[in-house]
Amino acid sequence: MWRRVALLSSSISSSFLAQTASRLNTWESLTTGIAQQAKGVIAPKEKTPFITFVLGGPGSGKGTQCIKIVETFGFAHLSAGDLLRREIASKSADGAMILNTIKEGKIVPSQVTVKLIQKEMELSDNHKFLIDGFPRTEENRVSFEQILSEWQSQIGVEPNVVLFFDCPEEEMVKRVLNRNEGRVDDNLETIKKRLTVFQALSLPVINYYSEKGKLYTIKAIGTEDEIFEQVRPIFAAFEVCSQTVG
């Protein structure tokens, strides 16, 4: 299902460290000279956020890997799905709309999700963010980058890394049905809708970041530790480069 995406993805090769250093230098240069925003607008962080998007279909295992990344490399984990479910539990007007949208297997409007993510970023003392399950669509992507650019008083702010967890459809279905976490969208009918939506709307986002040289495809089959051994070198390289630049 996802084979054509893997052909486009960035590989971890002998030139990986040099590529990472170049990206990190660009990121570090963005952290200087940030102008103060107009009165009444939340000021940007002292450092430009280092952002990783984590993409993959439902049951691809990206949530589990996010926990390991956070524990190992000190990121703040923002799960778009968890934020939306928390909004549902709050009984707000947006929460009712979100619940109905999820039950139909559809994508929640970009402005709603971006607003929740941005609020968490503003409240965090961390500058490294692991954003799980977002952007789901090209509209999500554009909305997020525009809003973040306004917040940081910069033009064209994009994620530093995009991880795509590539997993066979039958494995994803099995994992979702077996996790028993009480989620409103963890049933066979809804997961089939979600997989159809993911393939139609998320693959263009994945291909976009592949063409930008930001995408890393992770083969999401095996034990948690085996999968993480594909992830570790990506962030370890950034850690090495950060120490060198510092």
UniProtKB/TrEMBL annotation:
Q: Name one GO molecular function term.
A: ATP binding
Kindly provide the name given to this protein in its UniProt entry: UMP-CMP kinase
Sequence positions that bind a ribonucleoside 5'-phosphate: 85, 106-108, 133-136, 183, 194
EC id: 2.7.4.14
This chain's function reads: Catalyzes the phosphorylation of pyrimidine nucleoside monophosphates at the expense of ATP. Plays an important role in de novo pyrimidine nucleotide biosynthesis. Has preference for UMP and CMP as phosphate acceptors.
| Entry keyword tRNA processing | no
Starting at the broadest rank, the lineage of the source organism is: Eukaryota, Viridiplantae, Streptophyta, Embryophyta, Tracheophyta
Cofactor(s) listed in the protein's UniProt record = Mg(2+)
Q: Which InterPro entries does the UniProt record give?
A: Adenylat/UMP-CMP_kin, Adenylat_kinase_CS, P-loop_NTPase, UMP_CMP_kinase
Enzyme class, top EC level, equals transferase
Q: How is the cofactor bound?
A: Binds 1 Mg(2+) ion per monomer.
Q: Which UniProt keywords apply?
A: ATP-binding, Cytoplasm, Kinase, Nucleotide-binding, Nucleus, Pyrimidine biosynthesis, Signal, Transferase
